[in-house]
Amino acid sequence: MTAPHTVTSLDLGGRTALVTGAASGIGRACALRLAAAGAKVRAVDRDARGLDALTRAAPTAAGAVEPHVLDLTDLDAAEDLAAGTDILVNNAGLQLVRPIEDFPPDVFHTVLTVMLEAPFRLIRGALPHMYAQGWGRIVNLSSVHGLRASAYKSAYVAAKHGLEGLSKTAALEGAPHGVTSNCVNPGYVRTPLVEAQLADQADAHGIPAERVLTDVLLKDSALKRLIEPEEVAEAVAYLCSPPASFITGTSLVLDGGWTAH
Ligand SMILES: NC(=O)c1ccc[n+]([C@@H]2O[C@H](COP(=O)([O-])OP(=O)(O)OC[C@H]3O[C@@H](n4cnc5c(N)ncnc54)[C@H](O)[C@@H]3O)[C@@H](O)[C@H]2O)c1
């Protein structure tokens, strides 16, 4: 399908946003969407080439994209970089599909660090400025896997369930200060993260790679297509818009009917 039209009328002129994992997929789409709305975007990723490409693609007249090459396992640097941001999009993530008994403990640790501890540190770094001005938006890229488990994804499912809890806690603490915190929960999105797991899923489930999409990934989705990164970015934009100011502590599910089962 073609990229969806932008429906959210959003003026983020004068706002600073920070998007992690901005070099690829959903993070890239979010950075471009927020920049198009006029925000100055701190685009954070460990992938310098991807950030270069993003910077070239970003609008120059409206907002601006400011690339920051950073590995989010450097938690102190992540927290420092979040200071002074009005909008924080915790998006960076990684996946390994492996049964628990074969799951490397060091990878489990890295997944939890990047996908749960780094968001905590980024929120921690962002809150003082948000509280001081009485306005802030925190959007956490969770997943259907923040609400449901799938076999062979122990670290990812654990991190996303943890992120749901962190997001709700930030919502309760932030409410008196004008700060909202929500999760966005897509089903499978057309990004490199999904393309990269097709072979792993085929091995883990013992089926040919070409059957993974229909038999595994979209098995529980009522809508039998991948969602586009731009559709997810539009949901993020909505949560930053004035009509969404009463939405906090919740999860905006974009799962094609998966969790309706
Ligand atoms: N693709 C999907 O189907 C899907 C579905 C639900 C949720 N999500 C979530 O959306 C988010 C983005 O996923 P995506 O599909 O766009 O992935 P992606 O692989 O396209 O992009 C992830 C980005 O995160 C960056 N990153 C990973 N580890 C990092 C680290 N240590 N430091 C800095 N940057 C790091 C990568 O370099 C990459 O640019 C993730 O949190 C993912 O869990 C994705």
Summed up:
This protein has 261 residues and is of the alpha/beta class.
Task: Kindly describe this structure.
By secondary structure, this protein is of the alpha/beta class. Strands 3-2-1-4-5-6-7 form a seven-stranded parallel β-sheet, with helices on both faces. The chain is built from eight helices and seven strands; from the N terminus they run βαβαβαβαβαβαααβ. It starts with 15 loop residues before the first strand and ends in a 7-residue tail after the last strand. The mean pLDDT is 94. It has helices spanning 25-36, 48-57, 75-81, 105-133, 154-174, 192-205, 212-217, 229-239; strands at 16-20, 40-45, 64-69, 87-90, 136-141, 179-186, 251-254. β4, α4 (105-133) and β5 form a beta-alpha-beta unit. The radius of gyration is 17 Å and the shape is globular. Residues 21, 23-27, 45-47, 50, 71-73, 91-94, 114, 141, 143, 186, 188-189, 191-194 line the site of nicotinamide-adenine-dinucleotide.
